[in-house]
Amino acid sequence: MDWTRLISRDRPGSRLLIILLIAIIAVLLVAPFALTGAKAISICVKIMIFAVLVASFDLLLGYTGIVSFAHTVFFGIGAYGVGITIIRLGASWTSLAVGASAAIVVSVLLALVIGLFSLRVRAIFFSMITLALSAAAQTLATQLSNLTGGEDGIIFRLPPALMPSFRLLDTKVLGLTIDGKVICYYFIFAMSITFVLALLRIVNSPFGRVLLAIRDNEFRAEAIGYPVFVFRTLSNVVAAVFACLAGVMLSLWLRYTGPDASLSFEIMLDILMIVIIGGVGTVYGSIVGAAAFLVAQGYLQDLLKGASAALGSLPGIGQVLSPDRWMLWLGLLFILAVYYFPTGIVGVLRRPARRLDSSSKRSAKERLSTVYRWMGRAR
Predict the structure, then answer these.
(1) What residues form DSSP beta bridges with 167?
(2) How many CB atoms are located within 10 Å of the residue 309 CB?
(3) What residues pair up with 257 in beta bridges, in sequence order?
(4) C-alpha 113: how far from its chain's center?
(5) Cα angle 356, 361, 367; round to 5
(6) Residue 179 phi/psi, 5° resolution?
(7) Is 0.85 topped by the overall pTM?
């Protein structure tokens, strides 16, 4: 059996990237058994959720060339759809399925409306429309307190098998009690793997190739017979569905949803940063970028606290390394990542193999002459 069929024959293209992806997936797989503390497990869950969310956004940005700021709207629809339905119908698997299905239907309809009325607008004008829609959705969720809980959001229960009080086994497995929280973790893990593989299949299908053609040259794609507007609308719909499913995953883990948890513009900024760090136009970049960004975001304060305690005696160092300034250091890390990884981590890791293939046909003398020519220009 050809294992590349599992990833739609989209090879990572670099041994380092393969090792990195295997390491991330392995850590996520054994996290409940190997990691202690709720913070570490929560970061692992966020990596899985954001891998799907960012990959769905990259379907718009990296594969179709659409810059949309309304992606968190569909993320919030998924989270609110599950929460509201469970509160109304009770904590059962049927309610969960109905809520997720209703959220997907609403997301598809809204994405179609956005596509039909907004995708005809070019460049920055479409982005501004989606930005206004995102702000309107957050305001609407805040004001409809009878339905959404307002600014406080809503807390709900899940089916008993996903609640922490549930016990699957009376005995521990490798020192871990298999309760509802562990079951919920692996349920989200299975969902994230399935959705990422589905997105890989989509971007490597004929549909995905047409999206790449539209991104590279929209006028040429239209000239050879592809209905560009239809494909751009379908891309928006597919991305909305997967963003909605990511919101469902978030609601399963938190058992809570609110404007700040699923609709805030800060989530949109995180998505943009993860896309840039991981690499635009690659599904693998969403996994690597989510892991790198969320681990840095989660543990940067702890690192600064330790560094401040160790170097606090030096003049001015304690203030610079204060944990309260973690946003400053996160911004600096982002700038360094963009500077040293202009094509994202995945793009840089894939580059050596391509460079080796292209330069293997050149002689050593030709390569040296090129270096000397560059040095002369620098002077």
Answers:
(1) 179
(2) 11
(3) 154
(4) 24
(5) 75
(6) -105, -175
(7) yes
Asked if 228 contacts 218 with a C-beta cutoff of 8 angstroms, the reply is: yes
CA distance 240 to 221: 24
Q: Are the beta carbons of 353 and 14 closer than 8 angstroms? A: yes
In the chain, the amino acid numbered 287 is I
User: Is the Cβ–Cβ distance between 75 and 262 less than 8 Å?
Assistant: yes
CA distances from 302 to 257, 295, 317, 332 (A): 27, 11, 16, 17
Cα–chain center distance at 54: 3
How many angstroms separate the CA atoms of 6 and 334, rounded? 32
The sign of the dihedral angle between the CA atoms of 248, 66, 116, 229 is negative
Give residue 96's Cα distance to chain centre.
23
Residue 82 to residue 97: CA distance in whole angstroms = 8
- Check if the beta carbon of residue 241 is closer than 8 Å to that of residue 107: yes
| Cβ proximity of 50 and 290 under 8 Å | yes
Looking up tokens 């899985």 gives: 48
Q: How many CA atoms lie within 13 A of 15 on its CB side?
A: 1
pLDDT digits (tens, 9 = 90+) for 42-75: 999 999 999 999 999 999 999 988 888 999 999 9
Residues in the chain predicted with pLDDT less than 70, given as ranges, are 1-2, 119, 122-123, 312-316, 352-379
Cβ of 250: how many Cβ atoms within 10 Å? 25
